[in-house]
Amino acid sequence: MGTSKPITGKAFTYLSSFASEQLLQMYSSRFGPDIEVSLINGRYQINAGDVNYSYGPLHDAFRRYFNLDPPPEGEEAAVLILGFGGGSVAHILRNERNLKNAITGVEVDPAVLQAGREHFALDKITGLELIEADAREFIRTCRRAYALIVVDIYINNRVPEAFETTEFLTDIKNRLLPGGKLVFNKLVTDEVTRLEYQRLSGLFGEVFSNTHTFSISVNKRMPNFMITGIND
User: Fold this and answer.
1) Contact (Cβ atoms closer than 8 angstroms) between residue 111 and residue 49
2) 50 close to 26: Cβ distance less than 8 angstroms
3) Within 10 A of 48 (CB to CB), how many other CB atoms are there?
4) Helices 191-207 + 166-173 axis angle, to 10
5) pLDDT for residue 219
6) Closest listed residue to residue 115, CA positions, set 186, 2, 36
7) pLDDT score for 2
8) What's 155's DSSP letter?
9) What pLDDT was estimated at residue 222?
10) Domains along the chain?
């Protein structure tokens, strides 16, 4: 009669992740909560504070959004991602949807970029230009036009106020090609963020004549609202 071998190392960590979060590495951030790489339900992801930053529920939310509202295709249809994080959106576009679009990512926090490089092969995403900069300052001075601009800028579970203004949305619109689209991810976690979402939707209506909102309920208690505006 044979004897079973004890489960050790990576296999034990993997199985344990279905019972509780397995923290693998932490990175100190000077912009918000520390960046954590964890294994949860057998899945590696980047988290900070109370929310997922990349490759977890947020990845699922963007995947579902792009299934409902496909991105433009073609090398001429350049994409800008403000709040690049660990690279979820770029990974979806390049590796899951096989798009050839040039992608520029802007991220202010080197800690989350380091996590993406060390655990999620960030530097292997082809055709990616990665810029470490403040997204507000970047869009003020940018002169390139894009077919798609994705805004996913968070400190913990809140969008900094500077990114929910008429001025910021107008600057974005000025960087869109004719027919180009802005996609703004707004997570609603409580009554305060619900009111913020309603106000932001109103600002979209002031800046863009063509807007639409997609409710993505990966987590029904905290839905992601993808607000879009098209540069008609």
Assistant:
1) no
2) no
3) 26
4) 50
5) 67
6) 36
7) 41
8) B
9) 80
10) 9-49 (no CATH), 52-230 (3.40.50.150)
For the whole prediction, is pTM greater than 0.90?
Answer: yes
pLDDT at 1 (0 to 100): 42
224-230 and 210-216 strand pairing: antiparallel
Which pLDDT score, from 0 to 100, does residue 220 have? 60
- Which portions of the chain are predicted below pLDDT 70? 1-8, 219-220
- Average pLDDT, whole number, for the chain? 92
Q: How far apart are CA 61 and CA 8, in angstroms?
A: 33
Distances (CA, A) of 212 to 84, 124, 215: 23, 33, 10
pLDDT number for residue 13: 85
pLDDT of residue 217: 83
Going by the DSSP 8-state scheme, the letter that residue 7 receives in this structure is P
* Alpha carbon distance 91, 47 (integer Å): 17
Q: Where are the beta strands (DSSP E) in the chain?
A: 22-27, 35-40, 43-48, 51-54, 79-82, 103-107, 128-132, 146-151, 176-187, 210-216, 224-230
Q: What is the pLDDT of residue 3?
A: 41
DSSP per-residue string spanning 64-123:
HHHHHSPPP-STTS-EEEES-TTSHHHHIIIIIS-----EEEEES-HHHHHHHHHHS-GG
